[in-house]
Amino acid sequence: MTEKGEFLGMLSRRRFMEHMSRPYGVDTFTSRPIVSLYRIAQTDLLILPGVSLIVMAAQRAVQRLPEQLYEPIVVEIEPHVYRLLDVHQVLLALSQIHQQATWYISELYYNLSATKSELEAANSELYRLANSDGLTQVANRRRFNEYLEQEWQQLAFEEAELSLILCDIDFFKKYNDTYGHQAGDACLQQVAKAIVEAVNYSAGEVLEETLVARYGGEEFVIVLPRTIPETAVNIAEQIRVWVKNLEIEHLQSHVGCVTLSLGVASTFPRSSTSQKNLIAAADRALYQAKDKGRDRVILDLGF
Hints:
Blueprint: E1 2-3, E2 6-7, H1 13-20, H2 25-29, H3 34-41, E3 47-49, H4 54-62, E4 73-78, E5 81-85, H5 87-131, H6 141-158, E6 162-169, H7 172-179, H8 181-202, E7 211-216, E8 219-225, H9 229-244, E9 260-267, H10 275-291, E10 297-299
Parallel strand pairs: 3-4, 9-10
Antiparallel strand pairs: 1-2, 4-5, 6-8, 6-9, 7-8
């Protein structure tokens, strides 16, 4: 209804029929203008600008008194232009918004989960690359230093023994000079694989704690936590035999094939004894093995 060109208010069909169906309703309003009925039945009107959000409109609509809950909503499309909107339409639109939002949230969680998995895989691969030797695929020197420090602290707390095997490919410079650097790289790869296989075969219960690393050039190192010297020597001998059985031709070696010399050292980590001393003892044993003819295992007994 309008009055003097201005919007006055609204009388819903339901409310109109409710008053007209009352006893004497028709007689009461027969000769009276519609505005009189509007004033008798007047309720708080919900008028919303056209730019109102659907969520806000739904909240305003359901906050009305129970008898007004399903009264239409007046929407001002533009100045002096009004349209009616059924509350059911608002609630239906709100439901669709919630469904869409739920779908978007599910997609977001799925994408976040996928991204998290991809990120974890990428971080795992990055960690592997940062800690492994690119040529031989065993641990690199950086990982060896980190792992030795970690185990040193743990074994000092446990008062358990730690053994180290340092090994070197015999006459490797001559092998490179004779067969070329590509063949030398292939030789390093085969030897590294054989060392890992030999350790896996013979390490037994300490297998999961054992680390095989490329120490530098043609040198490899094996860290054996909680391993007594006798067991470490047996593992070193297994490595020596395993590599020799590869039968990689090496005509500049006195035995005609690629061999390893290995030095073994063991200690109980203490604050008074350093890791450098353990490495030095294994290195000493390695050079004793070379001095005594190579292709052998020597245990350093002076550490």
